[in-house]
Design brief:
- With 259 residues, the protein is mainly beta.
- It contains 2 helices and 23 strands.
- The radius of gyration is 19 Å and the shape is globular.
- The two termini are 30 Å apart.
Length: 259
């Protein structure tokens, strides 16, 4: 297994690649190491470091063997990076955010689509974005100031808007489906934005909320994580997607799993 991690305690903004638990290479950025990602095909690594004194970030693309392909400097805090199988890079940058204030709170975030060190397009007010698994789409979230709720937006690689879904603030992607999460429900949609199934958790109480969704790479299975903060219970709902009918498989409490 190959993993990449930022060394948050390094004064040189260091990033580490490990293979089967062994350090393969260490690279340095500027200031503090903030974010790093590896492409799905394990061919590229992108890192983001931040110089607080200058208020600038350095984004660097490497091969999996540690060869630097390019780097670029952008203004602002680099909250998140992603890289496709083609070596294209997504950056979520913010002029206000830092280690303690996320772009979800600042309202000054922007996504950048970078190829060979050059920004091809950018979009304002998107605090999170990532590539779809095959890299042909960019999926992002944005708070709609007019309505006060969140929406998921999908763009092509050229930055062209394709579709959006209101009422969802998080997502998980597979090859054929996206799972979108709102405060009280989950929606399964096709890659074209067609709603295939809605799952409403109408029984959720005031102290209970949906905190995460995951989907398998082939889109057959997905999970919904629900937390009851008052009772201290976390529930996992497992679903199977079939043509595209969804059938609940089982539900377990964390305390049952511990037993």
């Amino acid at each position: 297994a190959t993993i990449v991690v930022p060394d948050y305690f390094s004064l040189k903004g260091q990033f580490i690649l490990l293979r089967d638990g062994v350090v393969v290479w260490v690279k340095s950025g500027i200031g503090v190491a903030v974010a790093i990602a590896i492409s799905p095909n394990n061919e590229y690594v992108v890192s983001a470091s931040y110089d607080k004194d200058k208020g600038k970030a350095r984004i660097t693309l490497y091969t999996i063997n540690g060869v630097e392909l390019w780097n670029t400097i952008v203004k602002g805090y680099p909250f998140h990076v992603d890289v496709s199988d083609n070596g294209e890079v997504l950056l979520v940058n913010d002029l206000v955010a830092d280690l303690f204030v996320t772009p979800f709170l600042s309202g000054a975030s922007k996504i950048f689509f970078i190829v060979k060190g050059r920004v091809l397009w950018d979009k304002d007010y998107y605090p999170y974005a990532e590539f779809t698994r095959n890299g042909d789409r960019v999926i992002a979230v944005r708070k709609e100031l007019e309505f006060g709720d969140w929406s998921v937006y999908v763009f092509d690689r050229g930055g062209k808007f394709l579709w959006n879904y209101r009422g969802a603030s998080h997502f998980a992607v597979s090859d054929n489906y996206y799972v979108l999460r709102g405060d009280k429900g989950v929606v399964l949609v096709s890659t074209k934005g067609e709603v295939l199934q809605r799952i409403w958790f109408s029984e959720l109480k005031e102290d209970t909320r949906i905190v995460d969704v995951k989907i398998s790479p082939n889109g057959r299975y997905f999970t919904v994580e629900v937390i009851d903060s008052k009772e201290g219970i976390c529930r996992f709902y497992f679903y199977e997607n079939r043509d595209p009918l969804i059938r609940s498989i089982k539900e377990r409490l964390l305390k049952e799993i511990d037993e």
